[in-house]
Amino acid sequence: MEEKNRLKIWHGLLASGIVILFMIFGGIPMYAIFGEVGGYLAGIVVALIALLFVCLTKTKASEVFPMALPPVRQFFAAVAMFVGVYFLNAAIGLLQAQIIPNFYERQSDISGMVRTLSPAVAVLLVAVQPAVCEEFFCRGFLVAAFRKLKHEWMIILVTSVFFGALHLDLYSFLPTAVIGAFFAFLALRTGSLLLPMILHFANNAFSVVLAYGSDATSEGASVLSSLSAPMLISYLLFYLGIALFFLWFGGRWFSGKKIFCKSGLIAFILSALLSTVGVFLMVVGSMELLVNDEKTIPYTDKIAYELPLTLEEGIYGFSVIAEADDPVRIAIKRGDEFLVSTEYRGTQSLSQTLVLEKGEYVVAVLSEEGQVLDGGNATVSIMILKTTVGVPLTETETGTETDTDTVPASWSPIRLS
Questions:
Q1: What is the average per-residue pLDDT within 240-247?
Q2: Dihedral sign, CA of 16, 19, 25, 31?
Q3: pLDDT value of position 97
Q4: 107-121, 168-182, 200-214, 388-402 — which is least confidently predicted?
Q5: Cα–Cα distance between 111 and 307 in angstroms, integer?
Q6: At what angle do helices 72-99 and 173-190 cross, to 10 degrees?
């Protein structure tokens, strides 16, 4: 390839400068005047600049834009690595949202723009064109021009930095550069643009699908920008654990190295530990302890203990233990309706998760009517937790504050590259 590749490093630097200037003074006005069609045409111009340099240097096009089909193993391994990169960028997005005002709101604006287009047009403009034009320039032309650099990591670094800069968005620079580095790695290791193009298309097409999905995406995104510190750490650990797993094992598989080895076991344990701790902190951080009490109730002819509750809409976990010298029954009621109850037994326990509407409820410990009791003491232990994950945001008594740790389960980060 070196003999047929006449491109030099300065060709890559010059073309990069030309493209950046074009995007500032040409691409932005084209988008402002013609909308998405203008952006589509600007992307084509970027690809044509790459082709122009190839022609001027009399470099063989097939050497700069190789389209060889990679082995099946590398394809599936690359998909696994792509999942890892996706979760790594999700973690980066969480951190950025804490320091950049309205970070996710800007992403929601992009989604709103996509929804103004028909699905077919959105896929063409947002997924197909970038997957072809940007890959032609960044992973085709630039990688070929910077091959004179001594180390592979230097080629990946330079091309990924330009890929991030190409989008003219400081806020999205880092996650865009990360996925650009991944695409550059694939292009170098496979000697083909096919895998980067396929995964670039998949990344943007997935973003289009999310944009058409639901308003839960934007609602969840706005909540993520104001997560409490414990919840932020839990999400970061969870995302990084998954990212580590897919990146490490996908990378080993991609390179044809053994997966089941000592280092593989270490990577698996570390990724499992990070994700497990993240989920644990997520669950703990999303649970609000409402009641944690124990009472001893003397009784003679009957046992009748009731704990009245005024609950908001949400998901609640009940753990009730009743111990007496006579059979008792534990029940959760709303009015005269028994939502859940146990049988009559000397020692009884109830562990139940319920989705409840706003209203008045009662936790009751009862003896069977008409039964003759020996009398004695009944010990009742009650713990009630409320989860804040996946339930609607509700106003507090002040009418102004909201539960900022509520994250709709359908939320996923949107990134258009």
A1: 96
A2: negative
A3: 81
A4: 388-402
A5: 47
A6: 170
